Amino acid sequence: MNITKLNFKKLLLFIPVFIVSCGGVPEETTSASTDKKAFSVAEVLTMVAHENEVTRTLYTKAIVGGGKKQGFKFDEAWQDEKVEAGPLPALFLRGIANDIRKGDVPLGLYLSSDFPISASNQLVGKQAELFKEIKETREPKHFYDEESKLYTAMFADVAGAPACVSCHNNHEKTTKTDWKLGDVMGATTWQYPADSLSYTEAMNVLKAYRDGTTAVYNDYLEEIKNFKESDKPEVGDKWPSSGKYLPAPEVFIDSVRKLSAYATMSSLMK
Questions:
Q1: C-beta separation of 212 from 99 below 8 A
Q2: With bands split at pLDDT 50, 70 and 90, how would you rate the model's confidence at 263?
């Protein structure tokens, strides 16, 4: 990165952002810097979308894919008392979205597809039209949704792990049975009511997403405590690749932060 070409006003705002991305706590900033509308909504939604991509990939490959090799189960009805399993990747995302919805940050998040398992996730209207382009170019679409009155960003949802493909191809309600690795399976869509955000607002968006991730992952670990017939993996600093283990929430989140920190910095300093 050529630092001489950076936007130095954003650089000064971003120093605390980088600390947060790496797991630290930013020092208090002045009201002038926190209240100024420093970032476009497209920049912030791109930032949180990248962290979501890192989170889902890590969860899908390391937890679901690695866990299945150790005999761990994952199911749509994972929160049912009679089911001893963890959430599938799409349900993990839905849980994050639901947690965000309960909070004060007006951030919307949902998955949709042209071949959804659930009819409620069917792409329609303008989003369906834009998705045709996303499927071809794999480039995101940023626009103002007149119907919802929200600034919207759609990103390609790509099948990045065997667990994604096998689950969708074999699901009893699937409308498509020939998914392959690398296919664009749908779109991850984000929405926000303002066209620009201050430093504080941008950090609140990122925090809302991370809090949602932590909440759903903790729900999974709580479910495990109630397992009666299935093995209970040991929770700590090890991953399923090493045996019947699961990373503690802080270990999982710290891994996400480290993997996404550079892209977060780059997005906010353009």
A1: yes
A2: confident
